[in-house]
Amino acid sequence: KSANPQWREQFDFHYFSDRKDMLDIEVWRKDNKKHEELLGTCHVDITALPTKQTNCLELPLEKHPGSLLMLVAVAPCTGVSISDLCVCPLGDPNERQQISQRYCIKNSFRDIKDIGFLQVKVLKAVDLMAADFSGKSDPFCVLELGNDMLQTHTVYKNLNPEWNKVFTFPIKDIHDVLEVTVFDEDGDKPPDFLGKVAIPLLSV
């Protein structure tokens, strides 16, 4: 019930290459659980923004009235990584010792926001649901921690995919929940849901 909504949400997106990247934003209006209406879109050329500073942007919505006010900061990724199982970060004993020292009790209050790291090894899935007419699926796995999201590659035509990827997240809130969702890639259409698990960090 507002024409001037304030969300005050922060999202972290990670990209690891030098390719040109556009941030696409859609604003939606929801009447009820079933009816949604697109109120407008806008785009931000990430490569054109100055790095290591917060950029205040007022973006007009294309072909619709209104604008979107946002703060965008482009900075080097720290603590976030995707790697193969054979070159797993934190696998080196010396590196693990440095991490243990960094997060020992006497250093607990050195940086309140630096709580620790979570490393997740996504090995494989077994007996997934068949989403295609061929009796197979094209599964990929999405990991979400707070507002951080990383995903695996797609393994095509397989109900028992092996990804063998290692994901490392910085932890910002010990009460966060790691959500791991498996989807079926469906070309230009939205992916189909194949299953999900939720793991509270406090249970690890």
Question: How do the helices and strands line up, and which of them pair or pack?
Answer:
Layout: E1 22-30, E2 36-45, E3 54-60, E4 67-73, E5 81-84, H1 93-102, E6 116-124, E7 139-145, E8 148-151, E9 162-171, E10 177-186, E11 189-200
GO biological process, one term: regulation of neurotransmitter secretion
Protein name: MCTP2 protein
GO molecular function, one term: calcium ion binding
Written account of the structure:
- It is found in: Membrane.
- The protein is built from one helix and eleven strands, in the order βββββαββββββ.
- The protein has 204 residues and is mostly beta strands.
- The strands form four sheets. A four-stranded antiparallel β-sheet has the order 8-7-10-11, with no helix packed on it. It has a three-stranded antiparallel β-sheet with strand order 5-9-6, with no helix packed on it.
Identify the notable features of this structure and list them briefly.
MCTP2 protein; single chain; transmembrane helix; metal-binding; repeat; 11 strands; 4-stranded antiparallel sheet; mainly beta; 3-stranded antiparallel sheet; 204 residues; Immunoglobulin-like
